[in-house]
Structures are given as C-alpha cells and as structure tokens.
Amino acid sequence: MPISETGVDSATTKALHQAIEKLPRVKLADLPTPLHECPRFSEAIGQVRILIKRDDLTGLAFGGNKTRMFDFVFGEAVKQGADTVITGAASQSNHARQAAASAAKLGMAAYLVCRRDEKSKQGIQGNQLLDHILGANVRLCEGSQQPEKERLREELLSQGKKPYLIGGHDQLLATAAYVNCVLEMQNQLDEIAAEPDFIVAASSSSTLAGLGLGAKLLELKGRPVGFRPSLGDNSRVLDHLADIANRTAELLGLESNMSPDDWENTDAYVGENYGIITQACVDAVQLLARTEGILVDPVYVWKALSGLIDFVRQAKFPAGSTVVFVHTGGLPALFAYHQELVEFGGYEDCIVPGNSS
Ligand SMILES: Cc1ncc(COP(=O)(O)O)c(C=O)c1O
To answer: Most buried of the four, 10, 79, 95, 230, by CB within 10 Å?
Structure first.
C-alpha cells in the first residue's frame, strides 16, 4: 500500500477525499491556503519550528476560517434552494462578515442579527463596517439573538422568501471543512518533509474538532491544541469537541471513536474576558508582525498567539518541536480595536517640526 513521506497511507487519504466530495459544496474560498515557514518568529520565541497555515488568506472579503467552512455551509443552503441567509454573533463577528460576503457572491440576501455589545456602541467599524458595505441587513440585538433570528425567518417565509438559518447541522459541515484542511496541509507538509508535533488554533469548536478528527483519521502524530477566546468549563469544551467530531465522521460515513482526551484546550490566555485585550496579546501580535510581517486578529488569534508563545517558554511545546499554527483570520476587527492598540502599544505621532516659510 503506498505510503507518503510522512507515513500517511494514501488509501486512507483517498477514502477521506471521497467522503468529503460527497458533501454539497460551492466555491468561495481560495484553496489551498499557503503554509508558511516562520524562521524569524521561531527563533524569537525559542527552539521550535513554527509553520503558519494561512487560513487568513482564504480570499473572500478579508477571508478567514469561516470562508473555508462556508464552501460547505452555503453548499447545503444552495442545495436546499435558499435565497437568503440568517446568522449573527458579536457585533465584530468574523463569521457574520464572511457570511455577508458569501451571500453577496452567490446572489443571496444576508440578514445579520448581531449583539449590541460594547464594541457596537463605539461606532460602525471593522467587521460591522464591512457588513454594511457588503449589503447585509444588519440588526443589533440587546437580548438573546436566537428568538429574533427565528422571528425573522418566519417573516421572510411569509414574504415568500427561502431563508436558511445557519445553525446546528452547519457545525458538522464546518468540522468537515477542517478535516479537508488537514488533507490539504498533509500535502504541503509532505512537500517539505515536515511532521508536526502539535497542530494549534484559536478555537474551541469546529476548527479544532476538524483538525483533530483529520489528524486522527490520517494517523498524524500532531496533537491538536486549542486556545479559547472566552472563559468557560474545560471539560464541557472537550466533550463538545469529541461529540461534533464523532458526528461529523458519521456524516462522512467514516468510523471514529474520538474522546475528550484527543485534544488540549485552554482559556488560560483569555485575560478578563472575550474581546478584551491583554498586554501579552499586544506583545505577541507585535512580535509576529515585526519578525514575519504577518498580522493577526485581536479577539481570537492574538490570544492563541500569546498562548503559543507561553507554551514554548514553559516547554509545553518542547525545544525541537514542529508546531503548525492555523491562522484563522479575522483581521478587520483589528481596526475596531485601534484605541486599545494605541494605548497598549504606546504608539504616538512623531511630528517633524514644519518649515512653513
Ligand atoms: C478569527 C477567528 N478565529 C477562530 C474562530 C473560532 O472558530 P471555531 O468556532 O471553529 O472554534 C473564529 C470564530 O468566529 C474566528 O472568527
């Protein structure tokens, strides 16, 4: 049986490709995304080899992990004959922005029911600004968003529209998208004869579940490690990861018996809470930007990056390890955090005295 450089059985790879190809799919993301070697950043943080899988470069309206997932989620919506999508999360949601862009590209309407949170009170910026430019119908909600999404769905149905409310089952399609990402990454790792010891992402849900499931099915040695963007109960997150991974395997018609032990996940680098930045975040983002010219988002990837650096310093990622860090995107939110950045970064204008004569 043919085996690749890193020992992956090509029959398994083929079976996985075939299972994923059976899912409905549209083409929104520019794939494969590059896998970048980061020698200057690696040297700056310790004796590890860091490779960054650039899912911030999936292409559509600043890209990110959701664009990769939406190939399948919107594939399902199109299969069901939908002409409108309804979704939403935080006011600076990357998911919402990528849904608005996907809908625009496919000629569908997008309704975004987002939270009227602190960031939205500071004005229309970052992702929210892009939601408007992309033509989405943006609504900000003080209370729970789900009832408003359901109400909107009924209203659109009564107008003869065919709305698709993004939710439940889509988590599995999103997880399958990240199983597919592992297949894509495996080819790239083969080309440079690299074998990761750890596969890291800013995630506590489909991204990490898919990376873990893909790695397990392909029998890769890389252990999936997730850094969460918000505080919460670790064992519940690990149970959730195993649950959605196993249900995704079932959807793909594959055997899987993943357990919570198959992942690591921590909220240790969240700081005060979701969306509130820390000094360690700003130090991390500056270090990556100043060593590799790569920018990351303030809500998810910053925190994961500060976690990655600390894991190297604490030898939880020991010297000599190869780490693949999946950059999940989210860059537009950076501009909604400009005030915090200026303050934590200590940035100031350096004005050259004018010569007006
Ligand atoms: C930039 C970014 N990274 C990571 C995530 C987390 O992805 P998941 O929900 O798959 O854990 C999100 C989710 O919105 C995101 O916007």
So the answer is: 95
